[in-house]
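Archive entry. Fields below.
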Amino acid sequence: MKVLVPVKRVIDYNVKVRVKADGSGVDLANVKMSMNPFDEIAVEEAIRLKEAGKAEEIVAVSIGVKQAQETLRTALAMGADRAILVIAADDVHQDIEPLAVAKILAKVVEEEQPGLVLAGKQAIDNDMNATGQMLSALLGWSQGTFASELDIDGDHAKVTREVDGGLQTIKVKMPAIVTVDLRLNEPRYASLPNIMKAKKKPLDEKTAADYGVDVTPRLEIVKTAEPEARAAGEMVPDVDTLVAKLKEKGVV
Amino acid sequence: MQYGLTDEQEMIAATVRAFVEKEIYPHEALVERTGEVPQEIAEEIKRKTIELGFYACNFPESVGCAGLCHLDFALVERELGRGSMALNHFFGRPQNILMACEGDQVDRYLMPAVRGERMDALAMTEPGAGSDVRGMTCSAKRDRGDWVMNGSKHFISGADHADFVIVFIATGEDMTDKGPKKRITAFLVDRGTPGFTIRDGYRSVSHRGYKNMILEFDDCRLPDAQVLGAVDGGFEVMNTWLYATRITVATMSVGRARRVFDHALGYAAEREQFGQKIGKFQGVSFQLADMITEIDAADLLTLAAANRLDQGLPANREIASAKLYASEMLARVTDAAIQIHGGMGLMDDFPMERFWRDARVERIWDGTSEIQRHIISRDLLRPLGA
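PREDICTED_STRUCTURE:
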């Protein structure tokens, strides 16, 4: 089985995000970018499937600016076998919307014929949480979202999902799209031999036009604003005062 | 020199940095408090480093290692420099002097060291022989075909965990125009050899848990098979291999300075006094500007020196400049960082006071700042006959 893993280049989770002065979005000039952490989990899961003999090949794909090549190299250094970069924008500030990404991915799936698409449940920049679901609809494949456990058995997969109030286990027919949640696994570091090998692994470069997909934004960003600053806390001398204060505020 | 790092180099640095942040930082407070690295933590760091293929990555592919070039290895050590030396000792980087092993020494010392099965330490310094290496009194004398060693060494880092020690010892004396001059030989000495004792040294303010040990030799008998390199060839072995420790000090100083700087920058951007962030005050912001400028300068100087080694160019002066500048830069950066933190910077609730203490030794070990200045100026003046 071949596994396709879409990975997105996003602002590093350690960076303190700043909104651009004109409110049009987040400032991405000269900030550290990394692989979306949920996508890292998806790459790790694909590698584990390969190590367990359930997958033969892992193909990482990224859609965005040319610099997403670094993100793909990271996936290759972790253990993906080859990569496809689909250049869909020149400006780092241009985000490709989930529907456009899903359309391109659908074309890539057509070409590559993977038995499984493993994706992050969402990207930490826009938190859209839509691409996997849209891809599933476009392909007519089954989907298992928010996976915290994945067990592939022949032509079926058992996906344990983190839902409000607990875990739900579903059985889906393969080929399937599985989007992964935080607790599925802990991604590995790239090993030194794999880092050295990553450069020699194939990385194909394509454009959105190659797939005939129009990536023009359908959404208009009206305003981007910083979250309101949290009010400072207050130190209380003991539990009684704490309880009294909470009662005063009507919290308990 | 070519500017800019390759994708692989960026990835190597990012991987080591992530490793240090996740595997080293969480144990630092414990090591700082107890002055010890618990065995299970040491083993875990070592195991993970081996799994990642980073153990002994300064050794060539011919002995099954990654064979990183000097520049790549400088990036590894720079990122390691962010973390506790006591802990990252187990992110093993055996002394590259072990490449001088010959015959069955390869299987007894070199290979087990690069595989992480046996750990090494290097012993040169004595109470009466610091910068003046030739002043050593520790000696080995011929006796019925063996060598019999007597004397003691101190400040031997890592000897507490070492399975064997590479010891430099006087094996004779020549008369020269400038007076008597010691002949020096390097020996491989196994822990447990009769007459050889490793004991706790002094309590240092710098790098708690990275212990400096005392070695004692009392009629310790060694066969010729324990000589590393040639008899009386200690200086050649030293000159061929020991430049590396000075680059290590420089790179680690840069890595640590970057970590310290991040603390200072973050604090300046958050701490408020007189109704505004203290970073808004020029007294603070200009300090930050000077700090990052010096850190970048030291970083480039160090990487350029490492790159010269890779290019096969003379690098002795450049390495000395990097070691001198980076270690002195770290002193200024840690001092300024404490100033920005104010009183809290001195409290051991924050790591700032530790960075400040740790920085002090960098100007002393592996050649003091004065020795580095001597090397640099000699390199410039000697060709002019001065």
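CURATOR_NOTE: The mean pLDDT of chain B is 95.
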